[in-house]
Write a structure and sequence with these properties.
Elements (H helix, E strand, L loop, with lengths): L10 H19 L11 E7 L19 E2 L2 E2 L2 E2 L10 E7 L3 E11 L13 E11 L10 H7 L7 E6 L3 E2 L7 E12 L2 E9 L1 E2 L6 E2 L1 E11 L4 E5 L6 E5 L21 H15 L9
Antiparallel strand pairs: 1-5, 2-3, 4-14, 5-11, 6-10, 6-14, 7-8, 7-9, 7-11, 12-13, 15-16
Length: 284
């Protein structure tokens, strides 16, 4: 279990707690993907606004190409007369337990408008956390939820907020490296776009448009998962050796028998720790 640790005035007890935490986290890191990956976003959850849905949906920001079927691929906010109005994009990561190091954002350049304007924000800030209640996505209603901007800030508990990064008025994938790797338990990322730069000549309003968003990090491998038990942040490490990953044809089932020997040893040590009811501090 991962829960807030009790503060003790006993230095020796604190040292033993720190050593125990180190062992648990060291074992757990071996259950992460071995290499950093740049596709740690699973799906979009919500945008604070959308100008023309579904043509300019947040869904487009996961498309690696700038054009799809001769159409530009990007998300666009609604227009605002006040350039200080922010926008937010919220995504679900590939796992409920991720270590994130970088986030990449590419502003959109409107090649079909006079002067080829770039609809960047002035700055960007990132938050990570978990939902207050389970997010239930009915595939039949997904488009309706995205169109209605159903999931807003108050639906989530944010456990990390990054510094504010300035954005360049450039049509390129801009890389924002976090000051230190961030442990995201709960698998939710918010991209907050601060300040507007570009007016649209047609209506004189300010817009923010984004072509791509990428997250670089490492996620927890099957058969492990993290479950947030209540809004206080209490978490449980879930071990499911019979879990079958069948979301794509390139993924195969993962069972205890097929795991490498070092990974089986890792799971055995983790289960021993869990059976001994090891409690670790939530570092988020």
């Amino acid at each position: 279990m991962i829960e807030p640790a009790k503060i003790s005035s006993d230095d020796s007890a604190e040292w033993e707690r720190l050593k125990r935490d180190h062992r648990v986290y060291a074992f757990l890191t071996r259950g992460l993907t071995p290499f950093m990956r740049g596709d740690c976003i699973s799906e979009p959850i919500s945008a604070s606004s959308t100008d023309n849905y579904p043509g300019e949906s947040i869904q487009n920001t996961l498309e690696p190409r700038d054009r799809v079927e001769d159409r530009a691929s990007y998300w666009s906010s609604k227009g605002e007369s006040d350039p200080s109005v922010p926008e937010t994009l919220i995504y679900k990561l590939v796992a409920n337990f991720c270590v994130v190091t970088e986030i990449h954002v590419q502003p959109f350049q409107a090649y079909f408008q006079y002067g080829f304007p770039i609809y960047s924000s002035k700055a960007v800030r990132f938050r990570m956390g978990y939902p207050r209640r389970p997010l239930r996505f009915d595939e039949d209603k997904r488009d309706a939820l995205l169109a209605a901007h159903e999931w807003m800030d108050d639906e989530f508990i944010w456990t990390y907020t990054s510094p504010e990064f300035p954005m360049a008025q450039e049509n390129c994938l801009q890389k924002f490296k976090l000051p230190e790797p961030v442990l995201c338990i709960g698998g939710i990322l918010q991209v907050k776009l601060l300040g507007r730069v570009q007016r649209q000549e047609m209506d004189g309003l300010y817009y923010i448009c984004v072509s791509h968003v990428q997250v670089v990090g490492r996620s927890l491998l099957l058969p492990f998962d993290i479950q947030v038990l209540d809004p206080s942040g209490l978490c449980a490490l879930i071990y499911q050796p019979k879990t079958v990953c069948c979301k794509s044809s390139t993924q195969s089932s993962v069972t205890e028998a097929s795991m490498p020997s070092h990974f089986r040893a890792l799971t055995e040590r983790l289960m021993q720790l869990l059976r001994s009811r090891a409690v670790v501090a939530n570092r988020v």
